[in-house]
Amino acid sequence: MLRKTWHGVIVATALPFRDDLSVDHDAYAENLRTLIEAGCDGVCPNGSLGEYQTLTPEERAAVVRTAVEAVGGDRVLAGVAAYGSLESSRWAEQAAEAGAGAVMLLPPNAYRADDRSVREHYRAVCEVGLPVVAYNNPIDTKVDLVPELLAELHAAGYIQAVKEFSGDPRRAYRIQELAPDLDLLIGADDVLLELALAGAVGWVSGYPNAIPYVCNELYHAATKGDYNTALTLYRELHPLLRWDSRTEFVQAIKLSMDLAGRHGGACRPPRLPLLPDQYETIRTDTLRVLPLEEKAREQKEA
Description:
Layout: E1 8-12, H1 25-37, E2 42-44, H2 57-71, E3 77-79, H3 85-98, E4 102-105, H4 115-126, E5 132-136, H5 138-141, H6 147-155, E6 161-164, H7 170-178, E7 183-186, H8 192-197, E8 202-205, H9 212-223, H10 227-241, H11 249-259, H12 276-301
Parallel strand pairs: 1-2, 1-8, 3-4, 4-5, 5-6, 6-7, 7-8
Helix pairs in contact: 1-2, 2-3, 3-4, 6-7, 9-10, 9-12, 10-12, 11-12
């Protein structure tokens, strides 16, 4: 049975910019290739970590093409979030044309959509033909894909999986009760262990951009039942992982990437540089974890 595009460690990729804040596609492609070499299963371009909201349509389309060319379409879960269903459908069509294996879709987020609108939104994008992974992020979108609604969307054939970012691991069990064949994906780095224990089959992740080897070790230990290893690593990484659920998550992960020797760099406005205390906290925690990353790399390459 072939692996599904959204199974395993799927990195929600950060997007590097040049000094003039144009997209650095060469650096981006290099980042993607090194993630796969480190053991990650796939990549998700044009998520929030990729700053898709700040891209022109031409840039956004080019990012997906770069990802497919760098790692192969079967490893690409393309973000197709947009204010309207027509626009999301167009981005799904573009992803299909580029060769992506699946798409990840937020609910309508221009307003607090009701369930009827949410169902129509997912139906419209599903019609493009690529498998759809729903992204539940009620914190940012103000639209909550509760388990009952997810079960409806899955039963209708509109979604195959859900990236769960509510921060409430109790939902995992309710989702499995109502829709046992709906794939549960870990959506926030700082609840990885909790959702892995609940049966998640994938992790759409931010911090592997910076420390992919040790993040892969953590994920596989957690999902294979090696809880001694998983809990030890989780405790060590959690000061960094919790930044994935904070407002400054893009800046934080890009700083950690720079410290790890990867292409992070600046963000496009309106994101501002980190405050000095934030910078020092992330710097200290990243430098503390880098020896674990090197150890995990050496173990994988041995």
